[in-house]
Q: What sequence folds into this?
């Protein structure tokens, strides 16, 4: 009955949002409370689970999303995004815009957390879409596919990095295998799949759509790229330094502090405030007003993601992920397929790729000890399964829907289907690689 109760809770969420037109945040709260009662969480603990889910998710994301919105607004209004899009189009050409977005997402996505990469790069997507009169979803999907794949497949992202440690895999080899599988996966889920999305009606948030400026008013190429991508440089630099330093080094705590995604965004915003604002003769008061507008534009996005966090926490506290995993453990299938299947089902039910991956790790661990499967490929198999069919209980679903301003139906047809393609093609890549190296 556990799976039935999960499906009922998600169905109620869908009905509230699509049929009754409830605000998604309120719908999430109602569905989360219902799920808590159905799944047997004591009544006095349900409110605590909801609050923990909201606080836990927002604690990680609110600084990133709000600061990212401010930085995105500044990059757009200053003309930096226009300058960057001009350079990209001159290199790749308008006909190859999806490939330009794919490469950008892959390069930036390796060091960046998914949500950080999303809020940093989506404004660039909207600028390219607006300036060259191209459908926003068509332009953006290759970039989002690249960010998603790097998040699920490649260390040093949290889930694959944790799986490498749990299975005793080799970090470097897993990264190499991951890249071999990631590139064709992104091509299929990105530029190829995007061809079928040109008719989706998207009306991106206006905060990221600045009017084109005359050439002489634009910031320079170096200033534009440096200011917009400084968070990437900072994260890469701190990550490299963290790996190179010994645990007791006196600088390590400070490097970890600077490398925290929230601190990265704050530092980057302050630098961009000077390079794209004050340096370009803008007044501080005007810049602060710009940031207020940007914050208002993403306020509902923050609440919706918080609601998704509440539902995820209730499902986790109920033990539903462990129940599902235990029921599937006895299946007589290839270990890599079994790991992918368990992860995919938990992901669809719980909504969190990281939770799905780490839950599966505990179930699959005995298989690794048997020596019958390559631990590096097992990490990638679980990573692929953790991206399966993102939907209503996943914060990424709502982040995409609200930023691109598309309907729930079109979000499923584009975002959810893209994630499913990534999961399936990723598994196929793992199995092919297993045949080659075994």
A:
């Amino acid at each position: 009955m556990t799976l039935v109760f999960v499906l009922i809770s998600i169905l109620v969420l869908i009905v509230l949002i699509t049929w009754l037109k409830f605000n998604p945040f309120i719908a999430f709260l109602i569905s989360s409370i219902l799920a808590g009662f159905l799944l047997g969480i004591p009544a006095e603990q349900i409110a605590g689970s909801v609050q923990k889910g909201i606080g836990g998710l927002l604690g990680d994301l609110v600084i990133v999303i709000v600061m990212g919105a401010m930085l995105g607004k500044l990059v757009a209004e200053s003309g930096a995004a226009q300058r960057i899009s001009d350079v990209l189009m001159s290199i790749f050409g308008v006909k190859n815009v999806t490939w330009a977005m794919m490469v950008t997402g892959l390069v930036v996505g390796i060091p960046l957390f998914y949500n950080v990469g999303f809020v940093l790069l989506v404004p660039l997507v909207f600028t390219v879409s607006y300036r060259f009169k191209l459908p926003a979803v068509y332009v953006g999907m290759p970039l989002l596919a690249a960010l998603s794949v790097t998040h699920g497949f490649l260390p040093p992202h949290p889930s694959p990095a944790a799986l490498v440690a749990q299975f005793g895999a080799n970090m470097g080899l897993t990264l190499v295998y991951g890249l071999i599988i990631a590139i064709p996966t992104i091509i299929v889920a990105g530029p190829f799949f995007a061809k079928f999305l040109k008719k989706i009606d998207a009306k991106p948030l206006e905060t990221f759509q600045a009017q084109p400026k005359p050439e002489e008013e634009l910031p320079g190429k170096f200033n534009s790229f440096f200011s917009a991508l400084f968070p990437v440089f900072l994260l890469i630099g701190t990550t490299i330094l963290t790996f190179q330093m010994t645990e007791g080094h006196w600088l390590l705590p400070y490097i970890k502090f600077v490398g925290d995604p929230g601190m990265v965004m704050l530092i980057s915003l302050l630098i961009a405030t000077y390079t794209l604002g004050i340096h370009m003769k803008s007044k501080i008061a005007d810049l602060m007003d710009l940031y207020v507008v940007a914050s208002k534009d993403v306020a509902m996005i923050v609440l919706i993601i918080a609601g998704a966090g509440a539902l995820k926490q209730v499902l986790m506290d109920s033990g539903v992920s462990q129940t599902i995993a235990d029921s599937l453990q006895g299946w007589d299938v290839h270990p890599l397929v079994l790991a992918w299947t368990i992860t995919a089902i938990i992901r669809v039910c719980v909504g969190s790729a990281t939770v799905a991956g780490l839950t599966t790790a505990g179930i699959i661990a005995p298989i690794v000890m048997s020596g019958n499967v390559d631990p590096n490929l097992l990490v990638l198999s679980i990573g692929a399964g953790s991206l399966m069919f993102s939907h209503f209980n996943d914060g990424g679903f709502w982040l995409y829907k609200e930023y691109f301003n598309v309907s729930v139906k079109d979000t499923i047809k584009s975002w959810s289907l893209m994630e499913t393609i990534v999961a399936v093609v990723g598994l196929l890549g793992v199995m092919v690689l297993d045949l080659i190296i075994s």
